[in-house]
Specification:
The chain is α+β, with helices and mostly antiparallel strands. The chain has 1 helix and 3 strands, in the order ββαβ. Helices cover 14% and strands 24% of the residues. A 3-stranded antiparallel β-sheet has the order 2-1-3, with no helix packed on it. About 13% of the residues have low confidence. GO terms for molecular function: carbonate dehydratase activity; zinc ion binding.
């Protein structure tokens, strides 16, 4: 697959949701701006395997998600 410049990845949509939250892994530091695209693209199993190998992720269950009592979400 080679080196991929994230600036050249086509997004599914120019619209995205933005909210303030925290990191998903300890120490769950606050003050993180999350941007989530409204329309997502898909990737192949091979691309997912390459991504996991690149970030040394064992599985999605290794991430701890911290929920707040409320959050403000903006569609930008």
């Amino acid at each position: 697959m080679g080196v991929v410049d994230p600036r050249h990845i086509k997004m599914g949509s120019r619209k995205y949701y933005r909210y303030m939250g925290s990191l998903t892994t300890p120490p769950c530091t606050q003050g993180v701006a999350w941007n989530v695209v409204k329309k997502v693209n898909t990737i192949s199993r091979q691309q997912l395997s390459l991504l996991r190998a690149a970030v040394h992720s064992v599985s999605l269950s290794t991430f701890m998600i911290k929920y707040a009592h409320y959050c403000i979400i903006y569609l930008v």
